Fold this protein.
Amino acid sequence: MSPSTTSRFAAVYHREPEAAWRSPGRVNLIGEHTDYNDGFVLPLALTSGTRVDAARRDDRVLRVASVQRRDEPIDIALDGLEPGIVDGWAAYVAGTAWALAERGIGVPGADLLVDGTVPRGAGLSSSASLECATAGALLELVGVDLPLRDVALLAQHAENDFVGMPCGVMDQFASTHARAGHLLLLDTRSLEVRHIPFDLARDGLALLVVDTRAPHRLVDGEYHARRASCEEAARLLGVPALRDVVDLGSALSALDDDVLRRRVRHVVTENGRVLDVVALLESGDVRAIGPLMTASHVSLRDDYEVSCRELDLVVDTALAAGALGARMTGGGFGGSAIALVEASAVEHVRDRVTASFAAAGLTEPGFVDAEPGDGYGPVR
Ligand code: GLA
């Protein structure tokens, strides 16, 4: 986050901000495409995120400028704000204001400056971090303190019903609830959270996050289709959600459709892997989580079919270079992959991945710092 955000605010708006809030991006260690199936997820927050500075206006306009986009500020009229009116990145800001208003919180006109350091399109939840930081700054302006759970749910409401992306709750919960040095175990049915200590350096390990820089292809349509398949399978199996499948073998034999069978197998086995990873971490057997990460990737690639050439290349190359485990992370079809590596091997794995992309004629991948950071909070 740029230390010069406050001076940039003064340069754009000719006054000082009255509120400033930050909320991080996330990387998911394991538990992919489980959050809209009432299952388990295990993300950590990044130390990079989005900062939103704000000051009240006298009219009913939200004016939004961005440190990263040097174009003119965008004006959003608060009166008559409804889904479909605002598009592009400003929709995440407008949608958050809309969701706050839907909850009965009177959002005032305001000048906002957005400073985001999560790479966009990297599958690291730049959008959830923007929604949550916007919510925090607007709530601070009006002096309302909402429980973290409410902030996460209203940010998800903004994304589902204003932006139109039918995501689960993982990203917004990670952005608001995460704690430095910990993973966040979230039960997406009860919304209960547990902070699991995660200090890889102590064990001589590191988590490499590789941004493939592959453009997301058809991601929203495919995401929607996966979600619809899961709902259809749950209906056919007579359970409220795929979380409730207890006997995978009989569930698979009860389904005629091979695609549905594979979707169900992914979700059910992935939920099991999340709980197994937590148990291994709690018993101190950190290296043993590697094979579970790799199994998650294989399941996402073959059964859930949300991987792509670039993600597979990171995983295969990292494993061949000695990683203990590797997988795609986030929604898929591009975005980022992660690898669990010995700290002494980070440079080697990184170099091998970069070389494999060059050899395949692909855009050079990026590497993102994966120190588990804190969730949502004020900037002081
Ligand atoms: C996206 C969504 C999340 C989750 C992941 C897949 O990041 O926003 O809610 O479904 O995909 O695990």
The first strand starts at residue 19 and ends at 28.
